[in-house]
Design brief:
Layout: E1 2-6, H1 10-20, E2 28-32, H2 35-45, E3 49-53, H3 61-68, E4 76-81, H4 87-92, E5 97-100, H5 105-116, H6 120-126, E6 130-135, E7 138-143, E8 147-152, E9 157-161, E10 164-168, H7 172-178, E11 183-187, E12 190-193, E13 197-202, E14 208-212, E15 219-221, H8 223-231
Parallel strand pairs: 1-2, 1-3, 3-4, 4-5
Antiparallel strand pairs: 6-7, 8-9, 8-12, 9-10, 11-12, 13-14, 14-15
Helix pairs in contact: 2-3
Protein name: Response regulator transcription factor
Keywords: DNA-binding, Phosphoprotein, Two-component regulatory system
GO molecular function: phosphorelay response regulator activity; transcription cis-regulatory region binding
Length: about 230
């Protein structure tokens, strides 16, 4: 899951990121130090979760949360503050959690557990069905319906879509976790868009391949994935 840490204190940001490193699904974290940057980052990167400091100059975390909740697809918000008296306001803003500084391993574990009750399916419904990538320093996105397949190559992950290709910083495993009902792994190195699956064929050498709508190439299917692929046809 994409995580954004918002805090004007560098040490607090570093501490939280260090603690999050123990959670593989939550350690892809970006950091900003003020509310305006937070709003911009959310619009550009669409994080799933925002760890949001309440007490910041210029724009408080509560003000940031109010703006985020106006988005058509707001992220889950976990407030972080040294002042527990803000808890009621946080709850009124539909916060997914609340952490009191200094954040401890135990308290973070509780917040992560609570957040886990917001199932991945629920988060997926909130998130736009698109995959983001960087091109010349600019964040772009491809609608999931336009994606053909994703393939892991030596040093990167290549996204193939209707009108082109792009390199991703996400692994195949991350993409599978983010879009469990739309993407299917057919091979150790290949994930396909299920909605584009047309046929499963036997090759001359006895192996199996799939044909995808809008894709001219035939993609190999591993023996392990064969049964699962067949069930989706």
């Amino acid at each position: 899951m994409k995580v954004l840490i918002v805090d004007d204190e560098p040490l607090a940001r570093a501490r939280l990121q260090r603690l999050l490193a123990h959670y593989p699904n939550y350690n892809h974290a970006a950091q900003v130090n003020n509310g305006n940057e937070a709003l911009q980052q959310v619009k550009q990167q669409a994080p799933d979760i925002v760890f949001l400091d309440v007490d910041m100059p210029a724009m408080s975390g509560l003000e940031v949360a109010t703006q985020l909740n106006k988005l058509s697809v707001p992220p889950a918000i976990i407030f972080v503050t040294a002042h527990p008296e803000h808890a009621l306001e946080a709850l009124q803003l539909s916060a997914a959690g609340y952490l009191v500084k200094p954040v401890t391993e135990q308290n973070l574990a509780k917040a992560i557990d609570q957040l886990g009750r917001l199932t991945r399916a629920h988060l997926q419904k909130q998130r736009p069905a698109a995959i983001s990538y960087q091109l010349a320093g600019v964040t772009r996105s491809v609608a999931l319906e336009d994606v053909c397949y994703v393939i892991a190559e030596e040093k990167y992950t290549r996204l193939v879509f209707t009108h082109g290709e792009a390199l991703l910083d996400q692994s195949l495993k991350q993409l599978e976790q983010d879009y469990p009902t739309q993407l299917l792994r057919i091979h150790r190195k290949i994930v396909i868009n299920l909605s584009r699956l047309i046929a499963l064929k036997k090759a001359e050498d006895g192996s199996h391949v799939v044909l995808l709508e809008g894709c001219s190439c035939l993609l190999p299917v591993s023996r392990r994935a064969y049964k699962t692929v067949k069930e989706h046809l």
